[in-house]
Design brief:
Two copies of one chain form a homodimer.
Chain A lengths: L7 H12 L6 E8 L9 E2 L3 H10 L4 H8 L9 H8 L6 E4 L5 E2 L6 E6 H5 L2 H25 L3 E4 L8 H14 L3 E2 L2 H7 L9 H5 L4 H12 L4 E3 L5 H10 L6 E4 L4 H14 L6 E4 L5 H9 L6 E4 L1 H4 L9 E10 L2 E4 L14 E5 L3 E6 L9 E2 L2 E5 L2 E2 L6 H14 L15 E4 L1 H17 L2
Parallel strand pairs in A: 6-7, 6-11, 8-9, 9-10, 10-11, 15-19
Antiparallel strand pairs in A: 1-5, 1-12, 2-4, 3-5, 3-17, 12-13, 14-15, 14-16, 17-18
Chain lengths: 443, 443
Amino acid sequence: MNGLLTDLYQLTMAAGYHLAGKTGDRAVFELFMRRMPPNRNFVVAAGLQQAVEYLLNLSFGEEEVRYLKDLAQFSRMPERFFDDLRRFRFTGDLYAVPEGTPLFPGEPFLTLRAPLMEAQIPETYLLATVGFQSLVATKSARLVEAAGGRAVVEFGTRRAHSPEAGVLAARASYIGGCIGTSNTLAGFKYGIPVFGTAAHSWVQAFPNEAEAFRRLQDLLGAGTVYLIDTYDTLEGARRAAELGGEFWGVRLDSGNLAELARAVRVVLDEAGYRGAKIMATGDLNEHKILEFVAGGTPIDVFGVGTELVISSDAPNHGAIYKLVELETEGERRFTAKYSAEKSTLPGAKQVFRYAQRDVLSTADDCGTGDCEALLRPVIYGGKLIEELPSAAEARRNAMERVGRLPKKLRSLFECDPPWEVELSGRLKGLSETVRSEMEGNGG
Amino acid sequence: MNGLLTDLYQLTMAAGYHLAGKTGDRAVFELFMRRMPPNRNFVVAAGLQQAVEYLLNLSFGEEEVRYLKDLAQFSRMPERFFDDLRRFRFTGDLYAVPEGTPLFPGEPFLTLRAPLMEAQIPETYLLATVGFQSLVATKSARLVEAAGGRAVVEFGTRRAHSPEAGVLAARASYIGGCIGTSNTLAGFKYGIPVFGTAAHSWVQAFPNEAEAFRRLQDLLGAGTVYLIDTYDTLEGARRAAELGGEFWGVRLDSGNLAELARAVRVVLDEAGYRGAKIMATGDLNEHKILEFVAGGTPIDVFGVGTELVISSDAPNHGAIYKLVELETEGERRFTAKYSAEKSTLPGAKQVFRYAQRDVLSTADDCGTGDCEALLRPVIYGGKLIEELPSAAEARRNAMERVGRLPKKLRSLFECDPPWEVELSGRLKGLSETVRSEMEGNGG
């Protein structure tokens, strides 16, 4: 992974720490969301696999080092610094919650403990990959909740913010509960089930719809999904049924989907295709899906694109990455920020999950009673401790854990009161101590 | 570029065309926006370089081919099809408007002419890269317009939809008019000026703010930007001034930016730092910038992150990729769609730009009088015709062409009437012919 894929200031700070003789300092940074994105009562953590791949492979090539040397910002740096970059590898520790775990404001998705420079440089990449994938996994969980047991498939790569974002959106959607994706590379790389048959251009590429359907049936047999809205949806449904032979079902992509689905269902049933499924696509979201489900619309599978991969109603993940501890020459300092809008708590943390609430505590605290510590070691001394769960395992984790949340938290709207995140006595004490120290020395 | 980075149905359609004996068919597809994103009066085309790199390098590795062979969708395909995939390369033609060109609804960003399968597979990737970058370049142009001559810098990689999206967002922001980016890889790859000095964690990593500032000055000298809001913004400004020595300026990242900027300006001026600049960051957008500028707020540089890289008010590019012509065994057919919401026009097109309007015409039409044909050949027979303009050249093109648009189009709100896109007589005639043919044969 190219070490330059970060904000320049991470690299100038790395240089500055080098110059200030702080290469021996060890830092602890935490990545978390200060508040929930709008209408969310939890966020499904995702993106850990990419975070780990990044940390284990982060390096600076010779050309990259030369590029930095030529920048004015590095003109005062000795050759030793550039040699350190050439030799750079991540030697620290990573703690994280398993992918698929629902999290709440202030709870770390991950914690990095490493030499200051190694912990600073990854900030940008970690925020972008964990923040984005968590956003999409969360949106996926909303769609799946709304679908109430019917299937949701991710179809949005073309609308993603770059093709690479499409691959990660497919992965995150699957973790959040979608049954699969249209993104073939995501299928190949992550073992995610892939879906898709034909577009309008297929129908247009043949002299008429009947021939287009017949040719598709030649290819896909019982797996065929006929896209029936290119010319006239009900005509399309009739043509599909008249062709005979087995097929999986039909897809509607335009018009009044609720009315059309009912009418198409009648056409298919009357033709003896009671088992044929109806898939709907076209600007769907959780609210439209909820209306279809509530109204008993005969749609079996929802294909969602745009709104899922860009998380349209909440496209900004808002995650932050904050320094919480720093050890300089054997002396440990806790850092925090105390302000109305942007306060943060000092010290490395642990999250203890109980049945009805979480306790956010210091990392060396112990949970009491029936609870689970969510943050677990993933990388230790620069080495991966054990293989990460697959996307399918992360998905199972999400389904299980989201399913266990109180029903009111799975509402599509903000619930009040939200899930309780209580601060442990030790964390409160530490926070008060740090606050009075900071007030004492005036910053 | 991995051929699997596409929707599965592009590949099943490719297989189906193979099976139907249509590998000799030649198709023309156009990529365009049916309508403007909200509040936009034009869209700045961007992403052509990535589209070209993709087309020239698109291929299928052996593992990828084996993955497809194992999918049920390809179970009926003969080995010859997989051999064709192994040998796949793009042999067609690409026409496109130069990056930085403002476009309007219905006008092609690019046109692909190629064997049907080669034109079908790229749809997903082309939409995602051109759509996304055009969205961000457009947002950038809005921010730059609002800033009225003051500088805007892109700082948003951490909020982008994946780290790779951050690199492309940096590139697109620069094309749209930003003066540079914090994304170092974008600087390295595309020659974009890079900016950035230090974060709050830098200030927190030293025993006090004064030492943090001094250490930064050691590194950056006259280029230093002090981030002054970690503890108390005005105190921070005084500390920066007291340090003595040259520095570039200060950065404000929280609080009431307008009030703080005025107060900080006074502190700096009184200390004799009349040349020191003030940069502001923190959830900025074009409307806030406009208010600062209108109010004469002494902010010299705006750093914009989230709202720029995810184009918050319009995160969906909505671009589409449509089949407009198909040649089968020497016979050419024009394809179109006629419906209230989703109609498209048949045939390959050209855009002629006049001073006060565009004329959308058939590709073989001629412009009359003082106009420019916007779509130009880029790839011919699978080969790049000439080197593409650099990001800096694309930026100059955008500045020049957007600057030439009537002022009312550069409003932050929809202008009425919008820029006129007239259909040429020939295009209208073709459309009517195709429509009556389609009605004749009932689809």
